[in-house]
């Protein structure tokens, strides 16, 4: 009779493991057996883009702890970010009470919480861990740093002047908090075979091979950060400049909030194709992968394009351009204003930071990237 090796990294308990499904091998015969040496949990709840860019931590984490079982605790809307991600062994859902119960029962060697928010900090404090990195919640309901390496990020969140003075990327900061070597670890998106098929079917359906190159445009931003958006006229002017000079396809991206914006932009040129505003998260990633170059603000689209190794022209205003790791692929368009990195939701200045970015400037940066790609 087969003995189940339930201490194995691959053993899920409620279903057959991946090696068994692929080859039919049983535990006694399996050469993929790998006992769990450490249990690590990463708590990252808020903002899809932030959750996605935090995956840049995983490579260094797994390199330092090769026998670790990594759990990621997040909100339901972020779950699909981890499809086909071999670094994350399981995803625990914040809205699922059983996940919270498990946090109180299971023993972790390392607990990582990189958000100094009360919700995340409370969860990190309740979790049973030998070593904790990041932020917890004390008995008075106040967030505090678990370790001295987290103090710098904590102070930046509290003091505007330190946020503006910062010269480190978010990726470098979170590696330092977790005492990991930083070698510009990449954000992780791994498309599945079906997602590649979805992408290729879209290319065929829209006859995209007729174009010399494909540019993606994401004109939207979250409701919280409306001043991350570039002006609509800027995008129309950019599309006009590109389509008049080159046989390029321009793919529009966005969600339900961009329906009106994209309906205007797709009228600018016959080369503009709206990818739709109701794609799933994974379909969105698949379509981003079609592009040669991506134009966007500081949004989820930026981190997705970066993860998919695309050249990016990113427009910055109220948020920190320094915190974005460029990976040698991202050109940052930054207006010359002293009030940048204000993180304000409203602004009385006219023109404001995003209005100061000219379409000619963005066009020039697009041209530079296309030349580097050998497309022009």
CATH superfamily assignment of the largest domain?
A: Glycogen Phosphorylase B
The total count of strands amounts to: 12
Order of helices and strands: HEHHEEHEHEEHHHHEHEHEHEHEEH
Number of folding domains?
Answer: 3
Strand order of the largest sheet: 3-2-1-4-5-6
What is the residue-averaged pLDDT? 92
Segments where pLDDT lies below 50 for 5+ residues? Answer: none
Binned strand content = 15-25%
**Residues in helices, as a percent range:** 25-40%
Supply Rg. Answer: 22 Å
In CATH, the topology of the largest domain is named Rossmann fold
Assembly status:
single chain
How is the main sheet built? 6 strands, mixed
Could you name the key traits of this structure?
single chain, 376 residues, alpha/beta, Rossmann fold, 3 domains, six-stranded mixed beta sheet, six-stranded parallel beta sheet, 12 strands, 33% helix
């Amino acid at each position: 009779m087969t003995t189940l090796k339930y201490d194995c990294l691959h053993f899920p308990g409620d279903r057959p493991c991946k090696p068994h499904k692929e080859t039919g091998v049983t535990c006694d015969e399996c050469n993929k057996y790998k006992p769990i040496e450490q249990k690590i949990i990463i708590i990252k709840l808020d903002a899809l883009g932030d959750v996605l860019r935090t995956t840049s931590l995983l490579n260094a984490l797994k390199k330092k702890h090769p026998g670790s079982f990594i759990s990621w605790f997040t909100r339901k809307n972020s779950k699909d970010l981890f499809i086909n991600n071999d670094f994350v062994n399981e995803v625990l859902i914040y809205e699922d009470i059983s996940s919270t119960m498990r946090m109180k029962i299971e023993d972790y060697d390392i607990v990582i919480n990189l958000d100094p928010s009360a919700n995340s900090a409370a969860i990190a404090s309740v979790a049973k861990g030998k070593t904790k990195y990041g932020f917890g919640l004390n008995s008075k309901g106040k967030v505090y740093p678990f370790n001295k390496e987290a103090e710098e990020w904590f102070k930046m969140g509290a003091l505007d002047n330190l946020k503006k003075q910062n010269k480190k990327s978010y990726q470098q900061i979170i590696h330092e908090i977790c005492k990991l070597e930083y070698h510009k670890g990449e954000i992780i998106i791994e498309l599945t075979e079906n997602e590649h098929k979805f992408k290729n079917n879209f290319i065929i359906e829209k006859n995209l091979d007729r174009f010399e190159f494909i540019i993606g445009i994401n004109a939207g931003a979250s409701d919280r950060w409306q001043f991350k958006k570039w002006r609509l006229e800027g995008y129309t002017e950019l599309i006009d400049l590109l389509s008049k000079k080159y046989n390029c396809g321009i793919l529009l991206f966005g969600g339900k909030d961009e329906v009106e914006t994209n309906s205007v932009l797709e009228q600018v040129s016959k080369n503009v194709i709206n990818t739709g505003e109701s794609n799933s998260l994974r379909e969105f990633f698949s379509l981003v992968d079609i592009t040669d170059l991506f134009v966007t603000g500081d949004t989820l689209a930026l981190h997705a394009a970066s993860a998919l190794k695309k050249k990016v022209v990113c427009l910055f205003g109220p948020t920190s351009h320094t915190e974005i790791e460029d990976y040698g692929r991202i050109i940052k368009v930054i207006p010359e204003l002293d009030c940048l990195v204000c993180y304000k939701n409203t602004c009385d200045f006219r023109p404001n930071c995003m209005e100061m970015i000219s379409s000619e400037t963005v066009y020039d940066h697009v041209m530079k990237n296309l030349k580097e790609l050998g497309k022009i």
